[in-house]
Amino acid sequence: MTTQIWTKDQTKAQDGHAMANGVPFLSLMEVAGSKVAQYIRTRLKFEQRQIEVLAGKGANGGDGLVVARYLAPYYDVTVRLVDGVPRFDGAEAMLRAAQSLGAQVKTGWPADLAADLLVDGVFGTGFHGSVNNTPLADIYESINRRQIPVVAIDLLSGVAADSGDYHGPSINALATITFGASKWGHWGYPGASMRGELVVADIGLGVIGESTDCWLDARTAKEWLPSLSQLGHKYQRGRVVVVGGSKNMAGAPLLSAMAALRTGAGLVTLIVPQGVADRIAAPPTILVHEGPGSHGSLHWSDEETRLAAAADVIVVGPGLGQGVAPAVLEALLGLGKPTVIDADGLRLLKQYSRGTGTSAPMILTPHSGEAARLLDLQDVDQDRPKAARQLMDRYQATVILKGAYSIIGDMGKLTVNPTGTPEMATPGSGDVLAGMVGSLLAQGLDPGAAAALAAYWHGWAGMVAKNRYGQSVVATDLIDGIAKARRWVEDQACPSSAPTSM
């Protein structure tokens, strides 16, 4: 199974390439529909009787006709032609074939539903706009009232194929069967929470070239894990400096530092403002330097520059607070070291001009709100892939757009992290991630691999913590879970949210 993620245009290109190489349009539709029916019969093992197939006017509706034909010998199948017979040559014959095997055919939108299972073949990847104030909205309301399970063909109708954006009544599929590769609509918001189990079916499209975008699979993650040399020492495992902390957020940089150590860094140094070190009670495994400061905010001097210059990687921002001048970030980036910029460091970045000529590789770790501020937007969640690309381009940086299914942007390519759990949405979780990124950079991974592996590993640490604490996970639990999570990565454990194949 490919890990690629296709846009709507790439999907059309794949279809076109297959047909140009002698695969008829109707043959693609035949295989697609048969795969959906196969899922319902063998994977879902659906045992109730009434199945209703909603068929739209396009290719998605044609797939639905094939599904109906394959299921008709085993179930009571009704095909709903919501906008007439699908508009392509051969649709009438496909409809008659389904009828000949016992499928009933009705036209128009149903006033209500009484099925045991609904197959959604209305819109697919071609839809754009809102479901609100359409007949489909009424259908979704009926599904919710009756709690009817839904299997979506390619994409739940109403979800934008390239972003996952959706405007309509709340609706969740039991499963989505897509073809060739997953689409951005399966990973963006809120589409990712609506798709149910995601199954990628091989219908013989093949792959033309390499899509730049993908989701991170277990095999690749394992390959990226740093290994230890038999003759190695701590300095070869990388030196990380964490710059952060303030009067009211003293613990944040300590979380980053502890995470960096647990992820394998050889030496970690904290640079915090005067008066903060006594408040955090750092363990003896972490070096702590108190820089100058006033009112609990960090100032900067040549001594801090010297310490930072000795590091392989700098992490700046956790708990830094609002009182730090942009000159601090300018001094750090001027060292040319790979720099992870998180939290309040991103606020400094917004004020900083990269025109100073620094060559420091930057890894930005914004959540949605921080990303919106960096891009001067009100909201980025309506199109997270677009926002990740814009952040890459504007700041010439590697990006982790954090959240469920974090998007990692590097060198023009987007990678989705499939690991994680809602329990990770807790104060300090991002500080832990920033430390993990810094650690992997210090151990020699390139920025894109370090960012993607850190997000993946961080997500597994969240699963470890969830298994132990349920909904009571806090950030220190994530750090405690890093070691066991590494074993899961080594064992190539597959996250439940990752697509499966058929």
UniProtKB/TrEMBL annotation:
AMP binds at K402, G403, A404, Y405, S406, G430. It comes from the Bacteria. (6S)-NADPHX binds at residues 59-63, 124-130, 154, 252, 319, 367, 431. Catalyzes the dehydration of the S-form of NAD(P)HX at the expense of ADP, which is converted to AMP. Together with NAD(P)HX epimerase, which catalyzes the epimerization of the S- and R-forms, the enzyme allows the repair of both epimers of NAD(P)HX, a damaged form of NAD(P)H that is a result of enzymatic or heat-dependent hydration. It catalyses: (6R)-NADHX = (6S)-NADHX; (6S)-NADPHX + ADP = AMP + phosphate + NADPH + H(+); (6R)-NADPHX = (6S)-NADPHX; (6S)-NADHX + ADP = AMP + phosphate + NADH + H(+). NCBIfam families: yjeF_cterm, yjeF_nterm. K(+) binds at N60, D120, S157. Homotetramer. This is Bifunctional NAD(P)H-hydrate repair enzyme. The keyword Isomerase applies. HAMAP family: NADHX_dehydratase, NADHX_epimerase. Residues 217-489 form the YjeF C-terminal domain. Binds 1 potassium ion per subunit. Keywords: ATP-binding, Isomerase, Lyase, Metal-binding, Multifunctional enzyme, NAD, NADP, Nucleotide-binding, Potassium. Pfam families: Carb_kinase, YjeF_N. GO terms for molecular function: ADP-dependent NAD(P)H-hydrate dehydratase activity; ATP binding; metal ion binding; NAD(P)HX epimerase activity. It comes from Sulfobacillus benefaciens. Residues 11-211 form the YjeF N-terminal domain. Its cofactor is K(+); Mg(2+). Its EC number is 4.2.1.136, 5.1.99.6. One of its GO terms (biological process) is nicotinamide nucleotide metabolic process.
